What does this fold into?
Amino acid sequence: MGSASTPVKAFRLRDFVIGAGRLTVIAGPCMLESLELCLDVGRSMRDLCSQLDCDYIFKGSFDKANRTSLSSPRGPGLDGGLEILRRVTSELGVPVLTDIHEPWQAAPAAAVVDMLQIPAFLARQTDLLVAAARTGRPVNVKKAQFMAPWDMRPVVEKLSEAGCTGVLLTERGSTFGYNTLVVDFRGLPTMRALGYPVCFDVTHSLQQPSGLGSQSGATREFAPHLARAAAAVGIDALFLEVHTNPAAALSDAAAQLTPDEACGVLREVCAIRGALQPG
It folds into this structure.
């Protein structure tokens, strides 16, 4: 199996490179609830990452298409969400990332964002992968909860054959019985051995899908533990959902971290990575 030192197909995103040794942090509120929230979270995370010498990408979703309940908020939609992302990247000077759910969304999203994301439930959807790859934007693919790490090989082959300019593979836990996810940390070096940088999604790995009946629960108290473990195993990027008031969040309220909590997690992750550096 691979490790953090295994050569991978690193790729450039604006003025930094993902997969070249530095940690990339992908963070933002689960849903693009408002411009004010996104700017507050993005500014906090940008400044923190600068202090810790990490690269930063703002992430937010314009449509949460897989909500547990039909009545749950889904977000501002494509046009409204892309306008928020346009303002975030303009005002904060950071790259932005969002997820797409249908092939037709790839081109308009790519006109605004620096990187596209394929949600875990859709990781095997060929048309979606090809559409994302053909935009010329790098693509972050979340490994589905029902897939083995080595099952990501056909995924990266689809992206590569469609001309993808950069691929990031994200671990976000595996289904283990009802309403439960577990993380097999062997998956990170296994996916990295495919030749691509890997990311660990801390907060989604803590989810309890539909665990609260009409919404998903989470065991957010374990975020520091899982993040430390991922850092020790070896990662190129870390994904966090961050909200100024998680209890009031319109999506993933049980899983999101406050900026202060995210700060604590990232400081520990960076300390572990520093301790593992040769010499």
